[in-house]
Structures are given as C-alpha cells and as structure tokens.
Design brief:
The complex is a heterodimer.
Chain A (H helix, E strand, L loop, with lengths): L1 H20 L1 E7 L6 H15 L3 E7 L5 H10 L6 E4 L14 H4 L9 H5 L2 E2 L2 E2 L2 E13 H7 L12 H15 L3 E5 L3 H9 L18 H17 L14 H6 L3 E7 L3 H7 L4 E3 L12 E8 L6 H11 L2 H9 L4 E2 L12 H16 L2 H8 L7 H12 L5 H19 L1
Parallel strand pairs in A: 1-2, 1-3, 7-8
Antiparallel strand pairs in A: 3-10, 4-5, 6-8, 6-9, 6-10, 6-11
Helix pairs in contact in A: 2-13, 6-7, 9-17, 16-17
Chain B lengths: L1 H12 L4 H39 L2 E2 L14 E2 L3 H7 L2 H32 L6 H9 L6 H11 L6 H8 L11 H29 L3 H9 L4 H29 L3 H6 L11 H11 L4 H29 L1
Antiparallel strand pairs in B: 1-2
Classes of the chains: A alpha/beta, B mainly alpha.
Chain lengths: ~400, ~325
C-alpha cells in the first residue's frame, strides 16, 4: 500500500510538476526590417537559455492590419500572450496587462520620455517601450562630393529654402534624377509642420486641439510646392508605383525623408556613401519620435511569465541584444551603446538621436498622445488629396482638425 | 413526405419488412445527403453573413465587439444608418463613380470579348493555344494582376514608360494622374476579364446554325451585313448575359484597384467596395453604416441577378 502511494506520488510529480512551471508563450510579431527576425529569435532564445522552462511559439505576421488582428483576437478570446504593436487602441486596452504593480510605478522613467508617454493609461502602464525611431533626412554623400557641394555640419544646419536650393544644384551637377524623395506617410509629413511650430494637441492634460489652421495651411502649401518642384512626379499621389526607398538606394535621389529604421538597409544595400542629416529646419528644428511597444494580454494562462519576458526584452541587456542586428535605437536609456558594426550606421543614428533631443516638446507629446492613432489615416488621405488638388489645403487642414477633435472625444 | 408515409404504414400494419423501409428511406434521403455539404457551406458562408450584415445595418457598432469595452457594444439605431447614407457625400460620390466605372468598363469589355470571340472562333492551327493565352488572365488572382500592372505602369521603373523612352517619348504618369489612372483601371480590368467572357461568346457563336451563314454567302451578303443581320441578332441573349454578368463583376471591383492604384491618386479610383471596407475597418464604430452601404450594393446586384434569371427563362 505504502509502495503504491509513493509510486503514485512520484508519478504525479513527474507528470504534473514540470508542466506546472513550463510555459509555451504565443508571441505575435511583425517585422520593421528583415533583420529584425533574427533579432527577435536571438532575444527569445537568450531568454529560454536563462529560463529553460519557458519556450515560445513565435508567429511572424504582416504589419498591415496588425491593429485589426489584435482587436479581433481579444474579441474572439484568442489573443496571444505577447505581441509587438505600434499603438494600443481603446478596444484592446482592457485586455492588456498593467505592468505598474508588477514592475513598479517608476518603470517608465528609464525610457525615452516621449515614447514612454504613450505606454501610460492614467495610473496604469499598459505597454513596454521596445525601441524608438527618429524621422529625418538621409543624404547621398557621393552625389554631394561629385557635385563639389559641401554638406553643412549638424550644428550649422540649413533651412528648407537653403536645403532645396542645394539639393537641386547637386541634382544638376551630379546628374542625379531627383533632388528629393519623401516617404508617403503621415508621420514623415508632419515633421514639416512641426518645423514651422505647428502642433496638434496641447502638451499637458487636459488635452485639447491647439491647431492654428491658417499656419497649418501655409505650411501645407509649402509642402505642396516641394512635391511639385523637388519630388518625382506624383510621388505623393497615393497611387504611385515608385518606392522612395528604391529610388534612393539606386542612387536616383540626392536626399530622402525617412527615418532611422532605414539605416540597416542602407548599410547592407547602398552602393554609395551616405549620411543622416542635418534635417532642414523651418522656424525650429524638429524630428519626430516613433517606434514600437511590446504588450502582454491578461486573457491567457501565462501572465506572470509574459511579464517576465517583457521585462527581459526591455532591460538594458535585452535591448542591447534586440537592437543590434536591425540597427534600432534602444528605448531604454540605460541600455549600453549598441555595437552596430558599421561606423556609418553609428554616425547616422547618433545624428538622428541628437535631432530627437533637439526637437520641441510637442513633437514627442503629439506622437505619444493615444488619440493620434485615430488621426494618422485621415491626415495622410487629406494631405494626398491636397497634393493632388482634389481638396484645397484649407479643407485638408480642416479635415485633420476635425479628425483630431473626434479622436480626443473617442479616446475619452 | 413519402418517408413519413412508409413509416406510418409500416408501423400500422407491420407488413413492410425492415430492409425495404431502410431502402426506401435511403432512396429518399440520398439526394438530401448529397446536397447537405453544399447547403451547409452556403448557410455558413453566404446566408449567415448575409443575415448578420442585414442585422448589423440597424446598429451603431464597430466590427469588433469586445465584452470589456462598452463603447463597442451594438446600439440599436433603427434606419438611421440608411438615412445617413442619403446625406453622406462621400458615399454618393463613390456610388456615382462606381456606376461610371461600370458604364465605361462593361461596354468595352463586351466589345473586346466579342471581337476576340469572332477572331478566335474559327478553327485554325494553334487556335487552342491562342484561346488559352487570352483566357489565362481569368485564372490569375486580380490582386496579382493589379500588382503586375502597377509595376509595369510605374512612372520611373515601369516597363511601359521604358519602352516609350526608347522612342524618345516622355514618361506618362499612368497611375499618378486623375484621368489616366481611371483609364488604366478600366483597361486592366477589361484585360483581366476579356478571356472569360470571350469563351462565353464563343459558346454563343457555336449555337448559330452554319446554314444561315451558307445562305448569306450564296446571296453574296457582305461580312458586315452578315454580322449585323445574322450574328448579332442571334447572339443578343449571350450579349445580354455578358453585360449582366460583367456588370455584377464591375460593381464588385476591389482587389484589382487596391493593388493597382490603392484608390488614388487622392481618392480618384475609390469604388464602392473599398469605401465599405474603409468605413468598416478604418473608422471607429461605423460597421453599421458599412453594413447599410453593403445592403445598397446588394440591392443593385440582386436586381441585376433577377434580370439575368428572367432573361435566361425567356431564352428557354
């Protein structure tokens, strides 16, 4: 009898013991660059090496429609344990793990403030900042050298007028096809507005829309002029088949308005010398912070394990591992300077980080405001319609203003 | 009915042996068993979404209803979503543009398919291969066709502008200009569908008795007159069928445009399905309005389908 009881107890321990601690976490991830796939595998493998009882089922999904996928996942009860996301829409917020009681209320103090702001929801911390990006100008250094035109230093900088005149000269002298290409994206466009002192929301609570429509319209008109005189025809029409990245990488453009996430691709593919910045300025200098977050869902059975994994990925150690291959800027301010293995990449990312630091506060608070998630789509459509002449600049700005007002109401 | 009768009779008299009853039941049930998978699929993937869509049109709600987010819970609004459409400029403009697309694309498709059918109906060496080549785009996903043509029509990197440059012709903004992009969408849609409708026309042409053409030949009738007086009148039911079927397809145009122009430049090539998608998925809590928009499209397609069925009946 005794023997049987002991045998059953041992069998019970063998069968249930490890299972009680072992966790296989479902991770939903989209890639910002091809190199990121290796980075996320490296980080998760590193975690499993430290905690063999935790393994991962990594599902790589396309970026398009990620918000919709997460919304449907929470509604249908099939949310992953962990996901990368660039925003936390209201529909998924109640399903996110609140990290404040787990990591402590001061957890976000270690992260880039403007990006960390978006992770807060009142007293809650509903996301962990994963990495940050900076929008700015990338230059074909070889074309400038061929044209015999000097690029101003970061401190010296240049205004939009000086910049446009210079890149047109380089285009002519170096025989490059276009002076400038510009990603067709609302967050790449808004930097131009920021540089003329225009912002959307107040910087502190209670948030309200502070757009000066006339100033926004004047700046939009300047942008429309740029599309007509410096960009490839129809690039901002919303239907163009020409990709700014391909045009710049093939040496067909002197300058490219894009961001820090392109650095890894340039290191790997560019057949010419290139550099980041200085980004031209309007009445002020500005960049715009962007990036991604990592969230855990409170609907699964592995909330504690998921939080631990996220704590590791966003720790200085995890950040150093994650940002190295895709050449991202770590969100954690205590992360060691990453060894990107390319002097050009190191220099470019330093310039872009400096430009982020020099940006006005509203560039961070506008981006960090959760209501912005409802404004981006309308903003892009309105600008495209203004560029193509389907609506006036004033009407386009009116649409953006309305979308911002509605977004604040919806967010509340 | 007959099953019930047999069961009743069996139970009453007890004369029919069990194998006979089973055979009778089997014979009666067998057709229903064969139909069951199809009916089941139709119920799950057609009728249920249809009814659900109809129901949604009477509520203010998002696509996703999350139990912990009261703002997403459906709220009954009666016919408000439908009355909203009457004053919704974006919807009305898009509906008008969709009708415009149908009016431009369908006649062109009918003409091109008919010409192709007339050219490829006669048997000649290699006709099968030529027909297969023309039919091929119909077998390819419209999304793939859209992407392929987008690359070909690219301003800087497209092969079409490259070929023009060989002849010193300046590059053409096929996809970047309002008018040209609309023309491009029509032409690519016709290219993608012409093969399928050509086959329908060829089938229609084969039903016209050869004796009529022989009589016309004997009478020395010109080819054009033969076409106008014999081919076209006898092909009229097929033409009507092609017009109605292609109209239904044209009203549903979406993937091709999404891949080719994404609705641009600006909003020039946004048609009804894209608007419905954007309303449902890109705007918060407007899935009910999107459902109402879908019902309008459903009514249009339903009328066209009824017309086609009536025509088929009158043919018989």
């Amino acid at each position: 009898m005794m023997k049987t009881t002991v045998s059953l107890a041992i069998a019970g321990v063998l069968l249930t013991g490890p299972a009680a601690h072992a966790a296989r976490l479902n991770v939903m991830w989209f890639l910002g660059t091809d190199a990121e796939e290796k980075a996320i595998h490296d980080v998760l493998d590193a975690y499993t090496t430290k905690h063999p009882e935790t393994t991962f089922n990594l599902q790589i999904v396309p970026y398009d429609g990620i918000e919709q996928k997460l919304s449907q996942a929470v509604a249908s009860g099939s949310a992953p344990d962990i996901s990368k996301t660039s925003s936390m829409r209201p529909v998924i917020r109640p399903y996110l793990v609140d990290f404040a009681p787990i990591f402590g209320a001061k957890y976000l103090d270690d992260y880039v403030p403007a990006w960390a702001m978006g992770a807060r929801l009142g007293d809650k911390i509903i996301a962990a900042p994963l990495h940050v990006t900076a929008t700015g100008i990338l230059l074909n250094k070889s074309a400038f050298a061929k044209a015999g035109v000097a690029i101003p230093s970061e401190q010296q900088g240049w205004t939009w007028d000086q910049f446009l005149t210079t890149i047109k000269t380089v285009k002519e002298k170096a025989g490059v096809r276009y002076p400038l290409v510009w990603d067709v994206s609302a967050s790449r466009w808004i930097i131009h507005e920021f540089e003329y002192g225009n912002s959307i929301f107040s910087e502190t609570e209670p948030y309200k829309v502070v757009m000066d429509d006339q100033k926004w319209t004047d700046t939009l008109n300047k942008f429309i002029d740029i599309t007509k005189t410096a960009l490839p025809p129809g690039q901002w029409s919303g239907s163009s088949a020409d990709n700014p990245k391909q045009l710049f990488n093939s040496g067909d453009a002197v300058a490219w308005m894009s961001g820090s996430w392109q650095v890894a691709g340039l290191v790997a593919n560019a057949k010419f010398d290139w550099q980041a910045g200085p980004t031209p300025s309007g009445t002020v200098r500005s960049s715009i912070v962007g990036g991604d977050y990592i969230v855990a869902f409170n609907t699964g059975d592995h909330v504690a394990e998921s939080a631990e994994v996220i704590k590791f990925i966003t720790s200085p150690e995890g950040q150093a591992l994650f940002v190295k291959t895709p050449m991202y800027i770590p969100a954690n301010l205590k992360a060691p300077s990453p060894d990107y293995g390319s002097p050009a990449a190191v220099a470019a990312l330093k310039v872009m980080q400096d430009e982020l630091t020099a940006s006005p506060a509203y560039a961070g608070t506008d981006q960090g405001n959760p209501a912005m998630q409802y404004v981006w789509d309308t903003m892009k459509q309105a600008v495209i319609q203004a560029v193509t002449g389907q609506v006036s600049s004033a009407n386009a700005v009116k649409k953006i203003h309305q979308a911002a007002t509605d977004a604040l109401a919806a967010d509340e | 009915m007959s099953v019930l009768r047999i069961e009743a009779e069996t139970g009453r008299s007890g004369e029919a042996s069990p194998p006979v009853v089973r055979r009778a039941i089997g014979r009666t049930m067998f057709p229903y068993l064969l139909l069951a998978p199809t009916v089941g699929l139709l119920c799950v993937f057609t009728f249920y979404p249809l009814i659900q869509g109809f129901w949604m049109a009477f509520f203010k709600r998002g696509v996703v209803v999350a139990d912990r987010v009261p703002a997403t819970w459906p709220k009954y609004v009666g016919f408000h979503n439908f009355t909203n459409l009457l004053g919704n400029e974006e919807f009305l403009v898009t509906l008008a543009k969709t009708v415009g697309f149908v009016c431009a694309a369908v006649p062109l498709l009918t003409l091109v398919s008919l010409v192709l059918a007339l050219l490829l109906k006669p048997a000649f060496r290699g006709v099968g291969i030529v027909r297969a080549v023309v039919f091929f785009p119909s077998m390819v996903s419209l999304l793939i066709i859209g992407i392929t043509w987008k690359w070909m029509l690219g301003y800087n990197s497209g092969i079409v502008n490259y070929l023009l440059s060989v002849f010193n012709v300046a590059p053409v903004p096929w996809l970047e200009s309002d008018l040209l992009s609309q023309i491009a969408v029509v032409l690519v849609w016709v290219w993608a569908n012409a093969g399928f409708f050509m086959m329908i026309f060829i089938a229609g042409l084969t039903t016209i008795p050869e004796t009529l053409y022989e009589a016309a030949l004997v009478d020395g009738t010109s080819r054009w007159r033969t076409f106008c007086r014999i081919t076209l009148p006898l092909l009229a039911p097929t033409v009507a069928l092609v017009v109605i079927l292609s109209s239904v397809e044209a009203f549903k145009v979406y993937e091709l445009v999404l891949a080719l122009t994404a609705g641009g430049p600006g909003r020039s090539t946004v048609y009804l399905i894209q608007l419905i998608y954007e309303t449902a998925f890109n705007k918060p809590a407007q899935a009910g309005i999107a459902a109402a928009q879908s019902l309008v499209l459903f009514v249009i397609l339903f009328v066209l389908t009824i017309a086609q069925l009536r025509m088929a009946r009158s043919d018989r």
